[in-house]
Design goal:
Elements (H helix, E strand, L loop, with lengths): L2 E6 L3 H12 L4 E7 L3 H11 L4 E3 L2 H6 L5 E4 L6 H10 L4 E4 L6 H14 L4 E4 L6 H11 L6 E9 L11 H18 L3 E7 L15 E7 L4 E7 L7 E8 L3 E3 L8 E3 L2 E3 L6 H4 L1 H17 L7 H20 L3 E2 L8 H4 L1
Parallel strand pairs: 1-2, 1-4, 2-3, 4-5, 5-6, 7-10
Antiparallel strand pairs: 7-11, 8-9, 8-15, 9-10, 11-12, 13-14
Bound molecules: nicotinamide-adenine-dinucleotide and 1,2,3,4,5,6-hexahydroxy-cyclohexane.
The site of 1,2,3,4,5,6-hexahydroxy-cyclohexane (INS) has 6 residues, from helix 7.
Amino acid sequence: MTLKLGVIGAGAIGQEHIRRCNNVLQGAKVVAVSDINVDGARAALQRLNIEAEVYADGYQVIQSPEVDAILVTSWDPTHEEFTLAAIAAGKPVFCEKPLAMSAEGCRRVVDAEVKHGKRLVQVGFMRPYDAGYRALKKVITEGGIGEPLMLHCAHRNPSVPESYTTDMAITNTLIHELDVLRWLTNDDYKSVQVVFPRVTSKSHARLKDPQIVLFETQKGVRIDVEIFVNCAYGYDIQCEVVGETGIAKLPEPASVQLRRDAKLSTTILTDWKDRFIEAYDVELQAFINDVKAGELTGPSAWDGFAASVAADACLKAQQSGAIEPVEMPPRPAFYDKH
Ligand SMILES: NC(=O)c1ccc[n+]([C@@H]2O[C@H](COP(=O)([O-])OP(=O)(O)OC[C@H]3O[C@@H](n4cnc5c(N)ncnc54)[C@H](O)[C@@H]3O)[C@@H](O)[C@H]2O)c1
Ligand SMILES: O[C@H]1[C@H](O)[C@@H](O)[C@H](O)[C@@H](O)[C@H]1O
């Protein structure tokens, strides 16, 4: 049986996911798409040479009897409402990060899912599907560097549009680390502080860039993450784990080494689409397979909530300049068995 997908939001990642579901992955097909920019959605489908029903309203996609499962790839502030509507319709939903704009919003999704009685939500945290992060986790869990003591991380984008503001460095960008570092270290955040270095001249009035986010975890590990979204030189994700007996580092994406013109060089990627292309394939194939098998196993609404609890504390720390606690309520038993 082919799983029939409805996609809400046909922008950059929406188009990427539509392309991979129809042309790369197995067992699914996009049959309905919505975007507030209907003409843009139609033009994108034409470019991709894919036929699907186009709607102006995301709720029509969710309610369509032709659609078995939903992908939410619209702007961040719309995620919660569409995910809640998919749960209300009893349809599995893959929601891009962040699950909602606050922990309170994520909690509403968690509560709705628990009330439904079966997992329906997967959050689009793709890094746990990335081969590099998986290899890094394997080294750590097999004791290859002893117990982790410190993590040094960086999340750099070459540039961002004027609509990107200081808070989005947390809710839109750091949210990836907030999820993947919990997964990587099997630990939770205890407190956080945000420090603002000198602002780059490449930024704009409403964005303080770069930022350094400093965490202490429940196990006492110290983590620093540099977020630098106008770094100009490329799309660069770094993660170095310092343990008791060694250091493990996230591998660089494969790139040919060039010796030329008296220089030794490798290419740095410039776009998230390329940096995580395989991870997106694996995460969405897992979602498709899991929906068909009747049991979701990927990043859950609870993971989305946990990341947002930490994000809320980071937002508070951006304002206060102080060390802010990260207070995580206990996980409902529902997420142990699901
Ligand atoms: N996992 C990742 O690495 C990753 C990468 C990129 C984007 N994202 C997430 O995916 C989402 C989309 O990002 P993007 O880069 O594609 O942005 P984008 O601006 O290119 O696309 C968003 C699209 O959503 C549409 N839209 C907005 N509100 C809508 C609504 N109510 N109903 C239907 N369509 C609506 C817009 O018209 C636009 O076409 C964001 O939430 C972003 O955080 C995740
Ligand atoms: O939506 C994108 C995406 O999530 C990328 O992975 C991240 O590096 C960007 O900062 C963000 O704007």
